[in-house]
Amino acid sequence: MKETCYCPQPRDVPATDSQSLDSSEREGEAESEQSSLFSGLLLLLLPLGGDGTVNGTAAPQARTSSVRRRALSFENGGSPDVHIGSSLLSPIVASWRRTSHLPPPAPRIFHPPSSCMSAVPCFKCQSCYHHHLQDLCRKQLLLIGENHISIAMLPVIAVHGGAGHIPKERAEVSCAGVREAARGGYSVLRAGGSAMDAVVEAVTMLENNPSYNAGRGSVLNVKGEVEMDAIVMDGRTLASGAVSAVRRVANPVQLARMVMDKTNHLCLTAEGASQFARAMGIPEVPEESLITDYARMRWKKNLAPDANPVECQMGKMGTVGAVAVDAEGNIACATSTGGMINKMEGRVGDTPCIGCGGYADNKVGAVSPTGHGEAIMKVVLSRLILFHMEQGKSAEEASDLGLAYMKERVQGLGGVVTVDPKGNWAARFSSLQMAWAAVQNEQLHYGLYIGEHFTESACEPS
Ligand SMILES: NC(=O)C[C@H](N)C(=O)O
Q: Could you tell me one molecular function GO term of this UniProt entry (predicted)?
């Protein structure tokens, strides 16, 4: 599949950049050149966190891919014109040009849609000189005169493809799918889409991918049928929508969103959910189209009298989910699953239950979990993690605390992706593996095993 790329061409010297501008931008640049008083070149030594970490997780420097020099500009000479060139190990060089006493114009994205850099107004104080710049995952606040420049953490998306033990032969596809979905969701965010649009896009991509236990690829119930659960939640309004034990829809996450958008209810189940899908014009798909040979093989295997479906599931789970914060600071989550292998007909797991299979609140953050649904429900895992964040824990600490509690209290294993309103994110799991990926500041992060964290440019299709 062709991936959208927002990479700019490398831009080393701002003054020579005019060839890459469109005509209106060239005019603006020319005016700006005429009226400008170049007030100095400021060298900023910006350490990448004293401990060399990114998001609190050890960054695999060796695997970090090429870093581009990037530039960002504003619409006329009265606004700051900031150029950043950086690498993970080298200092940031920023040239700062202020050319008039006029109030600053609204910042805009420079070079859309080809720029990897963007600027958004300060979301605390829309009228001040603060501008949030996107670059590699740096959180430092740069102070330049009375102008504050902070490195934006938004937008961000993190996705998972299920916690468990992924067999070697499936590891590569599992990782590729979450990377692609994270990029897909991030493209929505980069184009100005909402966090809700982004998580639904990412989860839809994973539902359409037969490598996961959601949509096509769902595990089968004891009768060999597909019954799926999904949830979405909007952190701005706390609106939520879910479907449980729904059959013959390709994308339960989209149906869950319709429950949120078009009904006064939070969850529709089984035949009622199917009727609602029909009323909404969602085409019914043949059940066979959702069933893979792999799912059928595992179903048959677990019909054996000595089989242990829960243990088997712990071996190869593949529920999918996503959390995101958009450029406006709105947060959303989405989760979708086929449930547990050989579950009883009508079994409803954690996924469609608010607070268990997901929760999003602009004031705290969002979580999308995966794991043994009954265990997740017993500890209300998503809300438990957000509770820890309300108590001052970071996304990562809170995720670890929630997962550790679930393991200790009810012997449940699982994993989560978590974000906070500032864009700090975590992908944590107590199972052996969890395929996860996140995109922030044009960097794609991903991993599968505990402690694994690779980084590459989000603009480079893998
Ligand atoms: N794979 C999973 O994460 C299973 C899902 N949590 C459920 O119990 O329905």
A: beta-aspartyl-peptidase activity
